[in-house]
Write a structure and sequence with these properties.
By secondary structure, the protein is α/β, with parallel strands linked by helices. The chain starts with a strand and ends in a 5-residue tail after the last strand. The chain is built from eight helices and twelve strands. The chain has a five-stranded parallel beta sheet, sandwiched between helices. Strand 4, helix 4 and strand 5 form a beta-alpha-beta unit.
Length: 221
């Protein structure tokens, strides 16, 4: 995820929160740097300020869309007039959040966009683990995994984000489509069962990330 924001306090606050939620997040402090990062590599979501030095956010967004880029963009700006919101959305933004904003609301909007990005592909794989949507089969080392529907959905989420530390809240909200209250052990039970079934055919891949959640990776870190 890319944050283009010139106010350092806001940038630090948002970046810290995103990383604690398990998102890989990078920062550009002005419009020119933002355009360079946008043009250089793909992003899942862009968080974009309007008032930026060098190249304002609206101009940057229009240039980005003119290059046929389809990456979802959320405007984060103090410009709260209806006319400004219309201009931002018409320029190609998917969402618009006025400053000051609650981080919880920003995360809800990010999750909404990333759920749309998580549309199933034909198959997913990581190492010797494969998941096929058409047949609804998952295997490890060629051995079929007997998964429940929720375990299948969990594995699919991890396979779409290999090596990423996914927060418990993010996992729960994307798989159960409910807000995580931090008290239920439902997620831990399902992750434990999925881990057991994966480890029946190979070494551990699903690791607990202390203070965050879980990650699918070939080593503990």
């Amino acid at each position: 995820m890319l944050l283009v924001e010139d106010e350092s306090e806001i940038a630090d606050f948002v970046l810290l929160g995103l990383r604690e939620e398990g998102y890989a997040a990078e920062h550009a402090a002005d419009g020119v740097a933002g355009w360079a990062r946008l043009a250089a590599e793909p992003w899942d979501v862009v968080l974009l300020d309007w008032w930026l030095p060098g190249l304002d956010g609206l101009t940057l967004l229009r240039r980005f869309r003119a290059a046929n880029a389809t990456t979802p963009v959320i405007f984060l700006t103090a410009r709260d007039a209806v006319s400004d919101r219309v201009r931002g959305l018409d320029a190609g933004a998917q969402d618009y959040l006025c400053k000051p904003f609650a981080f919880e609301e920003l995360m809800a909007r990010v999750r909404s966009l990333t759920r749309r990005l998580d549309r199933p592909v034909a198959a997913l794989s990581y190492g010797d683990v494969t998941l096929d949507y058409e047949s609804q089969r998952a295997t490890r080392a060629g051995k079929r995994l007997d998964l429940t529907a929720k375990e299948f959905a969990l594995l699919a989420l991890f396979l779409r984000h290999p090596d990423a530390a996914l927060s418990r809240a993010r996992i729960y909200e994307q798989v159960w489509d409910e807000e995580y209250d931090g008290l239920s052990n439902t997620l831990a039970v399902h992750v434990g069962e999925l881990r057991r079934k994966l480890e029946a055919h190979g070494p551990r891949l699903l690791h607990t990330v202390r203070g965050v959640g879980y990650a699918l990776r070939d080593r503990d870190a």
